[in-house]
Amino acid sequence: MLEKNIRIASDAEIVDEAIISRRSVRAFLPDMVDDDTIRAILAVAARAPSGTNMQPWRVYVTKGEVKQRISDAILNSGIRAEKAEWDEYRYYPDQFFEPYLTRRRANGFGLYGALGIGRREVDKMRAQHDRNFIFFDAPVGMIFTIDRRLNQGSWIDYGMFLQNIMVAARGRGLHTCPQAAFAPYHRQIRPVLDIPEEEIVVCGMALGYEDTSKPENEFRTDRAPIEDWVRFAE
């Protein structure tokens, strides 16, 4: 029994570390990630649960010239992020309210503060946001889609799949950044990857090795204490 408990504690520590160390990295090294590693991450991530095992995810893995074409299509579109139309699905509410407004502001101020960008330096903020569209220099950029005929339950399943990718990446010494910012640019992305019209672009994700020299990667978000959002009922 003692050996079993030690093994359980060790396994929990490994899993917890992968989860806790996962964060949105916004500057990557150019070091390439081999296809076998990417396949292994996606294969284990696909063990995510889905209603009646429908497995609603579809993934486009891009590198090199194709990834660059996605970046060019978006950045040359002339559509600023604040003007981009969320016409396939809505990620955020039309108007933020508490406690979400405060959390959102703290996230933005914290990131831009780490970069030395002041609250009125709009051009610098825009330039930093545009780095989304080059996948923050990551060597691998993934675009995720879902069949538009599926309902909300499949989107919940999709979130578990995405989390599995990010945790599996940590287990291999890699980092990620999930990026909803790609969703409004589906018209620019679709022809590059030949995405069928029945698929909605859910998000993108950068994958690679963290550049620890960059100040934006020193930024850490906090989490509300468990007492704020959990109730135990007996």
From TrEMBL:
Alphabetized InterPro entries for the sequence: Nitroreductase (IPR029479), Nitroreductase-like (IPR000415)
Every Nitroreductase domain range: 20-209
Annotated keywords: Oxidoreductase
One Pfam family cited in the UniProt record for this chain: Nitroreductase
Keyword Oxidoreductase appears in the UniProt entry: yes
Keyword Cytoplasm assigned: no
Gene3D superfamilies noted in UniProt: NADH Oxidase
Stated family: Belongs to the nitroreductase family.
Identification of the protein by name: Nitroreductase
Organism, scientific name: Mesorhizobium australafricanum
Lineage: Bacteria, Pseudomonadati, Pseudomonadota, Alphaproteobacteria, Hyphomicrobiales
